[in-house]
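Here is one such protein, fold included:

. . .
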Amino acid sequence: MASTLSILATFTIIRSTFNDFIPKEIRDYLWSFIRRFSSEFTLVIEESHDGSSNHIFQATMEYLGSHVLSASAAEGFPKRLTVGKSEKVRKFTFGLDRHSEIVDIFHDVPLKWKYNADVNTNTNNQHTSESRWYELSFQKNHVEMVKSKYIPHIINTAKKLKDRNRMVKFHTVRRERWSSSAVNLDHPMTFDTLALDGDLKKTIMEDLDSFINGKEYYKKIGKVWKRGYLLYGPPGTGKSSLIAAMANHLNFDIYNLNLSAVNSDSSLEYLLLHVSNRSILVIEDIDCTVKLQNRDAGDPTASYPHVQVTLSGLLNAIDGLLSCCGDERIIVFTTNYKDKIDPALLRAGRMDKHICLSYSTASTFKQLAVNYLGILNHNLFSRIEKIIGEINVSPAEIAGELMKSKDPKTCLEGLIELLESKASEATSKPEEGEGGNNTKQEKGCKSKGSNTTNSDSPNHNAITFLTVGPDPMTVREYTVKAELAPILKAVLLKHGDIVTDCSLNSTQCRSSLLEIACGIIQKLQAAKLEDLTEPELRSMLASVSDLESLKLRVSWLRKRLDQIIEALQLVKQCSALEEDKRKILQEIEEMQKELGSCHMETLEKEKKTLRIQEMEAVIGTISESISSNEARLSCFYERSLVEGLLCI
């Protein structure tokens, strides 16, 4: 024991003497010389860089904060951590205490982190500031991996963690400007508690997740990273609740824009320019706040003398150049009357997805019973479900009854009383037109004189049910336009009844779906390959995908569209190759003229001759590619684009 203490004391004296008598510059040089023979490499990440905040330092702090709590339980990891929470975040944040170390494993490579902090003092020994930095140590042979993969991984992960943990804010307009005092959105609604038919809920969540993960896709196709939704249906069907669930699911701020409080297009532009990224812009009851109604209905501006926001101004704000000033944004419009909205607002790019929120079904009632009463079943359920299937009652009305008591039986009996009252009113005032199984659902989401969407299907908003035009014809039990009847006959003969497994049961809906398929075939039948464009074909392909989602057997049509798109790309490729070939031939011709000159030296002539030979070889390769592509395209030029699809 005495010898050990003696050795330690000697080492301490030597270290102190070394530091006192050897200048710092020499000590630094000696340490750097020793480190040359070490296989370890260290990166220093300071809090500031070039006089400003170091983004990598902040990302490292966020990233390591998500690791330290689980890692601290392991042997050899720090037992001292920092913890804190501000009003701007949802959860506690953890971090390393000063001079603590932690090891992160990335791609099976151990990477050692150390957090350091020193207090800076002035000549009077007064504390002036604090210097903080991280040291990242690893083996030298992993430098490239750390630089190209690990550090970008830290930055991306830190951004996701920060976005996920921040509090959602709710912004409103005050005097044509966003209020400076946004409030925390503590709305408890989530997709878990939202009473919505299962397939529709799943479709919306998948669409949101696809959008949030689609940054590179939007960049690739050259579109602004934004998405528009139209929520329409009767009052009390959950439009506001769905918006709150979307905000909580994405952790996006909500900007609530009341257009009636905006006096000019320029004020509207200012407001939209100051909407942050990762946000949802909500314009509720768009058919009521300003008169942006269908222009076919006439000019009703006399009823709204003080409104200055124009339809043109709104269109430019949400889909013009102004919309490029921001990323990762969602715009949600709501209305009770879809048919009152101008078609220019309804098109894709402005309202990309139309979501019908209709009256309650047995499914939504059961979800509400679980949420409000905590019960999965009751002997009164069957009676309630039967009445709900026959009348129109909104989820808000059902929720109102279920909140009146904590006793399930009392609430359900009160609900039955409400439903029976509504049924009695419906009987005394029968609806015009034919009754049917789908009457209730159609009434909730029907647009005057036009389209309805089926919310029971996975892509309910993507399929538009067409109204059969004049002179319809019936093929088997399906009624379609007369011009499409021969195509439908040929399809049924070739492929059988392609709607047998369709998830929609009514003959009218199935007829509409068949019209869509036959309409696509009609366009292909009348067109030549050079007449079609890739966006047009992609649109057809999207419609076919929607038909497949409703379980129509149209894979044969999708396959043909894929082949035509591929052929169109070959045509473009051939054109590009022909242009390359023309340029090379032109260059060869110029070089041959130079070779004919008697002023060129022999060595230069040899070089140009060799270059010409190389270019001629390239032309040969290009010609072979063109010939190969043209051979593949011959079947599309010589025959109809629907050859083999129909039994004629």
In short: The chain has four domains: 11-165, 169-293+307-356, 362-423, 477-647.
